[in-house]
Each structure stands twice: as structure tokens, then as C-alpha cells.
């Protein structure tokens, strides 16, 4: 689980995906990436049961 | 011909064709002239197919003379969002990446329109790859009600061109509200059908599990006519469905009397007072007409604000990965940022988002046991100067009332409900259960019949819309 992302983590994640992200670019992206991860943490408040499988396509 | 001909309904124009009072050539020439007068003020088009449309109009004129009749869309000029493939015609997605892209075949939706005799007038502007941002190479499509503001995104050009009387309908795509948001801003009808009802084959994807294709038109009847032509199972597109009754006849058969109407309760105080007033008046009208109106609370609905990006971003990034690696500087800066974000999201968070989505779908299924349709304002505000980024705070609020229907896949339509802040249009959204597209359109038509809104020339292009 990733909770906090700074420019270093952004660069590592981008490199893992093969994306050319410079140090300065990583700095710019870090705030937006953190906001996205904060959204994901908020979704943990929804107490989904183990039976609720991921949706691939809507019904 | 009178310039007002450009604002007729599709069936009305069809009657004039069939009685020989008006020819498709006359109509296409007039609309092309109108586009010339409106551009570049609206910036609604990337490619106008002048010669192709005139050639097609001449052929269709001969069709009518010989009694050949393909139905209600025969000879009707339409626009296509430029992320929809057209054989031999540039399809750019309003991007530098695909600036020279010429597909070898038509998207299924284009094939269906051509088979129905529609005249493709051109390819409409959009936000880059339908991902919420204007690319500077193409610029913003402006709002016919106030050209100093956006027409809304991402189906911006098609919406502006329909509202301005340049075409009778346009085809848009909608991943979080991209048909309904601009339709609300420009005071036209925009329909996002049930997921899979319209084939996405040949439509450049943004997010496979959220993308929908649907009609933009000036009236509910026109939207219904177009939807009936473009819908249906496509053997080449596995997510498509069939068996949905979409016959555009009998749209007026539904009364609001006794209809169970749920008013979606959203959290937050984002709703602008003028939009709230128009919405409350609409709800009052439903009550006055005998509908059983009740408030509906959907427990997971407030989480849709956090749900959309974790669903879109990984899918979009997966689609764009090769270009993101080799040509990142060719994207608009914010498009690039949003695409790069998708690589930052752990897989487990993506799966969690899809499981929360399952919960939301289950809650919608329960709600539709209690009500026939759901109402809410389409957008909390009127058209802004520029389109907000999907990943930003304003982008989240802009899509707050439309994205739940993409996440669940239920059909939803926006209809004009009058003017709000700055005397600009607002929209009423009506949603129904999966596959109840016809009911949603019938209820929208019932509301439209109450006369809150009449089709008119938008004030921002009135001068350029008068006959020369």
C-alpha cells in the first residue's frame, strides 16, 4: 500500500512504467499523485465485503 | 430557403424532403454557409466535409425523386466527434499525436448512420482524447450562448454545432459526462444510453468500462430518432447489447401521472442558486403533473467524487502507454499529467475502486425497485470560461452528477430547463434503470412538452445566423 508519494516515489513509479519523467516533472506531478492516492484511501471507508467482486463492465 | 430551416426537427425536415418542398442540397448548402459565418467564433469543427456532403446530398436528392426512402435520417446532416473513425477522413481526437491519422474504415456508429442515409457534414472539435483538456493546436469550442465561454467538454464542437443550428444532430462520447455536460451548458438534449447499447467499435477509447456513445440533438424526439438508428448489438464489439425497445414512435405515450420519481440527494453546497431554482421548478412541475416525487439517498453516491479518477486513469494510461513513453511532449500539459497519474496508482487501489463500483451498482438496483426514474441537475453551474481538468477539484464537481451514471452504466439524458446564472442555460438530468432508455426518453419528452424550453437561436450567434 502506498500512502505518501513525493517526487522520488513518482520517479520510481514512472520508471517502473517506462515513462520518461525528469526530476522537475516528478516534482510537478507529486501533488496531483498524492491527491489521487488520498482519494483511494477515502474509498477504503466503503466497507465492501469479500463477495463484492470488481466490476469489469457494467451490467 | 429560410435560415430557420436549420432549426427544424428531424421529422419535420424529412416531411419537407418527401413533399419536395425542400431539397437536401439546399439544406446542406445553407448549413455550410452558416458554419462559415459562425466560424472561427465557435471553433466547433476540425474537418468540414464540404464536397463530400454536397455530393451525398445530390445523390440523396435523386433517391427522393425516385421514391427511395431509407427512413427518418435519410438526408439529415449530422456531425461526428473527431474521435470516431471515418474511412479515408482524418480522425484526430483533437491531438497532435493523431493529427495525421486517417482510418481505413468507418466506426460501427458511422456505418449505421450512412446506411440510414444521414449526411456526415464533418468532424467536430473535442477536448484532447476526450480527457477534459483543450489541446492548443485545436483550441476551445465556444458556447453559442456566450462565445466567451466554453461549450463544455468533451463533446464540445458537436454540442455547439447542434445548438447553433449547423447540424440536426451530432454523435458524442461520454465517459464521465462528456455528452450531458456540454448539452446542459448549450441548452440542448444529450443522451448517454445504457452501457453497451451503442457500439464503440472504431471510437477511440478513453476508458473501456466507462465510455458510452450517444446522440446530441435539439429535441428529445430528434435524440430518440438518432439513438434508434445507432443502437444495437455489434458482433465485432463484445460489450454491446440488444433487445432494448427504442422505437421512436409513441414517445408521447407516457404520462407523468403516477410516475415514481426520485430526487437524488447529493452532498456538498456546490449547486449555484440559479441552477437550484431551475431544478426545484422542474421538480415542482413533475409533482404538479401527478408524479410521486420522493428524495432518494444512495449511500455510496458521495464516494463517486473519489471513484471516477481511479477508474479512468489506469485504463486511459494503459491505452496511451506507447505514446506516453515516446511522445509525451505532444500532449497538452494537463492531458499528459492525467495520463501519467494512471501509472502512479497501485493495482490494488484500482481493484478496490472497481469493488466500490459493484456496491454502487447494487445500490442503484435497489433504488430502481422504488422509483421509475431519478432526477438531478445535470451540472451544478452554468458554462464556465474554460473546461476544468478532470483530475482537479472543479472537474470533480463538474462531473459529480453525471459520472455516477457512467460508473453504473444506467441511461441518462439531459434536457434544457431554462436559464440560470448570467442568463445562461441549465440542464435537468433524468436517469432510469439499465435498458430503460426508452422510458428515460419518454419522461424527458413529457417534461419537454410542458414547454419550459423552446428551441431558439442562441444569442451568441444570433447576428451571424440571420440570412445574409
Give a description of the structure:
The complex is a heterodimer of chains A (59) and B (468). Chain A is mainly alpha-helical and 59 residues long. Chain A contains 2 helices and no strands. Chain A has helices spanning 7-16, 23-43. In chain A, helix 1 packs across helix 2 (23-43). Chain B has 468 residues and is α/β, with parallel strands linked by helices. Chain B has one domain (1-240, 248-450): Alpha-Beta Complex (Amidase signature (AS) enzymes), CATH 3.90.1300. Helices cover 37% and strands 15% of the residues of chain B. Chain B has helices at residues 10-18, 24-38, 50-65, 108-115, 156-163, 180-186, 220-230, 273-288, 304-326, 333-341, 347-370, 393-398, 403-408, 437-449, 462-465, and strands at residues 45-48, 77-81, 119-124, 142-143, 146-150, 169-174, 189-192, 212-217, 260-264, 292-296, 373-377, 412-419, 425-431. In chain B, the strands form 2 sheets. Chain B has an 11-stranded mixed β-sheet with strand order 1-3-2-6-8-7-12-13-11-9-10, sandwiched between helices. In chain B, strand 12 (412-419) and strand 13 (425-431) form a beta hairpin. In chain B, helix 7 (220-230) runs antiparallel to helix 14. Chain B is globular and about 60 Å long. Chain B starts with 9 loop residues before the first helix and ends with a helix. The model of chain B has no long low-confidence stretch (mean pLDDT 96).
How would you sum up this structure in a few lines?
The complex is a heterodimer of chains A (59) and B (468). Chain A is mostly helical.
Amino acid at each position: 500500500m502506498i500512502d505518501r508519494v513525493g517526487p522520488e516515489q513518482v520517479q520510481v513509479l514512472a520508471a517502473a512504467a517506462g515513462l520518461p519523467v525528469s526530476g522537475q516533472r516528478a516534482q510537478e506531478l507529486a501533488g496531483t499523485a498524492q491527491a489521487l492516492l488520498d482519494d483511494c484511501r477515502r474509498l477504503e471507508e466503503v466497507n465492501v465485503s469479500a463477495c463484492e467482486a470488481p466490476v469489469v463492465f457494467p451490467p | 430557403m429560410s435560415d430557420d430551416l436549420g432549426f427544424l426537427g428531424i421529422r419535420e425536415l424529412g416531411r419537407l424532403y418527401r413533399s419536395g418542398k425542400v431539397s437536401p442540397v439546399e439544406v446542406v448548402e445553407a448549413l455550410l454557409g452558416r458554419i462559415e459565418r459562425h466560424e472561427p467564433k465557435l471553433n466547433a469543427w476540425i474537418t468540414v466535409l464540404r464536397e463530400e456532403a454536397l455530393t451525398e446530398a445530390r445523390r440523396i436528392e435523386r433517391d427522393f425523386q425516385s421514391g427511395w426512402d431509407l427512413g427518418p435520417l435519410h438526408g439529415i446532416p449530422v456531425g461526428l466527434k473527431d474521435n470516431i473513425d471515418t474511412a479515408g477522413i482524418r480522425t484526430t481526437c483533437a491531438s497532435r499525436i493523431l493529427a495525421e491519422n486517417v482510418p481505413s474504415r468507418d466506426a460501427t456508429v458511422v456505418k449505421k448512420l450512412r446506411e440510414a442515409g444521414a449526411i456526415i457534414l464533418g468532424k467536430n472539435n473535442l477536448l484532447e482524447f476526450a480527457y477534459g483538456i483543450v489541446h492548443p493546436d485545436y483550441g476551445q469550442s465556444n458556447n453559442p450562448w456566450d462565445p466567451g465561454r466554453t461549450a463544455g467538454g468533451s463533446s464540445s464542437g458537436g454540442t455547439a454545432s447542434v445548438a447553433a443550428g449547423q447540424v440536426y444532430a451530432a454523435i458524442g462520447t461520454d465517459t464521465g459526462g462528456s455528452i450531458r455536460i456540454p448539452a446542459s451548458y448549450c441548452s440542448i438534449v444529450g443522451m448517454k444510453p445504457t452501457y453497451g447499447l451503442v457500439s464503440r467499435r472504431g471510437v477511440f477509447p478513453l476508458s473501456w468500462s466507462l465510455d458510452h456513445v450517444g446522440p446530441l440533438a435539439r429535441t428529445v424526439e430528434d435524440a430518440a430518432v438518432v439513438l434508434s438508428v445507432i443502437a444495437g448489438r455489434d458482433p465485432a464489439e463484445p460489450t454491446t447489447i440488444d433487445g432494448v425497445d427504442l422505437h421512436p414512435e409513441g414517445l408521447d405515450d407516457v404520462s407523468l401521472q403516477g410516475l415514481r420519481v426520485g430526487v437524488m440527494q447529493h452532498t456538498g453546497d456546490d449547486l449555484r442558486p440559479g441552477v437550484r431554482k431551475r431544478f426545484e421548478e422542474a421538480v415542482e412541475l413533475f409533482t404538479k403533473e401527478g408524479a410521486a416525487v420522493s428524495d432518494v439517498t444512495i449511500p455510496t453516491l458521495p464516494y463517486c467524487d473519489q471513484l471516477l479518477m481511479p477508474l479512468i486513469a489506469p485504463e486511459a494510461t494503459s491505452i496511451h502507454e506507447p505514446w506516453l513513453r515516446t511522445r509525451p511532449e505532444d500532449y497538452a500539459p494537463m492531458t499528459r499529467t492525467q495520463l501519467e497519474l494512471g501509472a502512479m496508482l497501485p493495482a490494488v487501489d484500482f481493484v478496490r475502486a472497481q469493488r466500490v463500483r459493484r456496491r454502487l451498482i447494487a445500490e442503484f438496483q435497489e433504488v430502481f425497485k422504488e422509483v421509475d426514474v431519478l432526477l438531478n441537475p445535470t451540472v451544478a453551474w452554468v458554462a464556465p470560461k474554460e473546461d476544468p481538468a478532470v483530475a482537479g477539484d472543479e472537474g470533480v464537481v463538474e462531473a459529480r452528477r453525471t459520472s455516477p451514471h457512467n460508473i453504473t452504466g444506467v441511461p441518462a439524458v439531459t434536457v434544457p430547463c431554462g436559464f440560470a446564472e448570467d442568463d445562461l442555460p441549465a440542464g435537468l438530468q433524468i436517469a432510469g434503470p439499465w435498458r430503460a432508455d426508452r422510458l428515460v426518453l419518454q419522461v424527458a419528452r413529457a417534461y419537454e412538452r410542458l414547454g419550459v424550453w423552446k428551441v431558439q437561436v442562441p444569442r451568441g450567434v444570433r447576428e451571424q445566423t440571420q440570412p445574409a
